[in-house]
Design a protein that fits this description.
- This protein is mainly alpha-helical and about 200 residues long.
- Helix content is about 60%, strand content about 5%.
- A hairpin with a 6-residue loop joins strand 1 and strand 2.
- The radius of gyration is 22 Å and the shape is flat.
């Protein structure tokens, strides 16, 4: 295992400041068990939030740190819900800005695994139809959420009037050879268009 430099990486600095003991072993074990770098990013950041809540003596129910982490970081969360989550933390003696500053990215986790722990993070790509469906679903959900928030903002300024807006985004894929057209899900379920396989 490589020796850690005097200028410790962010994962080390935050783990020491927040009292996250054995976090290196847990990150390495989870990576070995097949979790992604983004999974490890969420795992570490939730541990940071949980430690801050515990240090402040904040009473928590099962799953609350995970939900608060989502409210603080997920792009699909409305600004109002994020402010509510931050206010809850502040009322209980937790500085949400300091906690968020301690959050790390998946790239930081990768660097920590590679450079500090000597754990290789190169894996063969196994991008599946399920991965593709999940990726596009997240993009569609995000587009719907951003569009709805934009409409609500326009209504708030008086530039638009709609009583109860609802936004639905549909992704369609067409083949210019056979002229077939599908929803993205139907294309995945069918395994392709009508063109003969090469």
């Amino acid at each position: 295992m490589p020796a850690k430099s005097d200028a410790a990486c962010k994962v080390d600095r935050v783990a020491e400041r927040r009292g996250l003991t054995a976090i290196d072993e847990r990150l390495a074990d989870r990576w070995a068990d097949g979790e992604s770098l983004r999974d490890l990013e969420a795992f570490f950041n939730e541990a940071v939030l949980r430690a801050a809540m515990t240090a402040a003596g904040m009473e928590t129910i099962d799953g609350e740190p995970s939900n608060l982490y989502r409210l603080l970081t997920d792009d699909s969360v409305t600004a109002g819900k994020r402010v509510d989550a931050e206010s809850r933390l502040r009322r209980n003696g937790v500085d949400p800005d300091a906690v968020v500053d301690d959050f790390v990215s998946y790239q930081t986790v990768r660097t920590h695994l590679n450079d500090c722990l000597g754990v290789g993070t190169a894996r063969e790509s196994t991008f599946t139809a399920a991965d593709a469906r999940n990726t596009v679903h997240k993009l569609v959900s995000r587009t719907e959420s951003v569009t709805l928030r934009t409409i609500e903002r326009l209504c708030g300024t008086g530039a638009l009037s709609i009583a109860a807006p609802s936004v639905t985004v549909s992704v369609r894929v067409a083949c210019s050879e056979c002229n077939d057209e599908y929803t993205f899900s139907a294309l995945l379920d069918g395994g392709g268009c009508s063109c003969p396989a090469e």
